[in-house]
Amino acid sequence: AQSVTQPDIHITVSEGASLELRCNYSYGATPYLFWYVQSPGQGLQLLLKYFSGDTLVQGIKGFEAEFKRSQSSFNLRKPSVHWSDAAEYFCAVGAGNQGGKLIFGQGTELSVKP
Amino acid sequence: DAGVIQSPRHEVTEMGQEVTLRCKPISGHNSLFWYRQTMMRGLELLIYFNNNVPIDDSGMPEDRFSAKMPNASFSTLKIQPSEPRDSAVYFCASSWGTGAEAFFGQGTRLTVV
């Protein structure tokens, strides 16, 4: 069955520190992979996506993610976290060839310490 | 573009009442998705349309839930009768083409008392 696992429910990092959010997926074919961010009371904003090609993808707000097929992972990284990055982050896999038909992980809540 | 527009943003209703949530997708997008977000189940797909036709409604929890897309610029999600366990945030999203990413609306927070 298709699934997405985000092992960390909550992460706290200091402002300026690096960040890595983990995501593992289970999918039978080459997946479409996404990271979305949700601020309180807001909708989901796409940070970045992987469809094919270069396994290191760059996104908005200084985020990047690396697709590792051998590990079934798509971890999100940022070299220096800003206080405004505090939010909930969702990893998702696109089921089939329909990019909007998503299976989401449970989310990781990021807190940023001053 | 104004993005995906959902209304109302907040809805409080009494158990047993009918609730209708509305969505206007991004102009030109041909796929529309309804998601529900709860603490217990996270984000789950309820139904999606392609070219106004329902393609997969396997996520619709019960017959009390129904969705329509009468034209390319409007969709509704209806719950009749509503129950307290339907309380959640409902998101609408739209996309264009195969494999394209979905753009989400701000959501409707539904509270059934």
Walkthrough of the structure:
- Chain A is an all-beta fold.
- Helices cover 0% and strands 52% of the residues of chain A.
- Chain A has strands spanning 3-5, 10-14, 19-21, 24-26, 32-38, 44-50, 56-58, 64-68, 73-78, 87-94, 102-104, 108-113.
- In chain A, strands 2, 5, 6, 10, 11 and 12 form a six-stranded mixed beta sheet that branches.
- Chain A is globular.
- The N and C termini of chain A lie far apart (41 Å).
- Chain B is mostly beta strands.
- Helix content of chain B is 0%, strand content 55%.
- Chain B has strands at 5-7, 10-13, 19-24, 31-38, 42-50, 53-56, 65-71, 74-79, 88-95, 103-104, 108-112.
- Chains A and B meet through strand 5, strand 6, strand 10 and strand 11 of A and strand 4, strand 5, strand 9 and strand 10 of B.
**If you compute it from the alpha carbons, what radius of gyration of chain A comes out, rounded to the nearest whole angstrom?**
13 Å
Poorly predicted spans of chain B: none
Topology, number of strands of chain A: 12
Largest sheet of chain A: 6 strands, mixed
Strand content of chain A: over 45%
Overall 3D form of chain B? globular
What's the gyration radius of chain B in Å? 13 Å
How far apart, in Å, are the first and last alpha carbons of chain A?
Answer: 41 Å
Question: Ranges of chain A with pLDDT <50 over ≥5 residues?
Answer: none
Summarize the structure.
The complex is a heterodimer of chains A (114) and B (113). By secondary structure, chain A is mostly beta strands. In chain A, 0% of the residues lie in helices and 52% in strands.
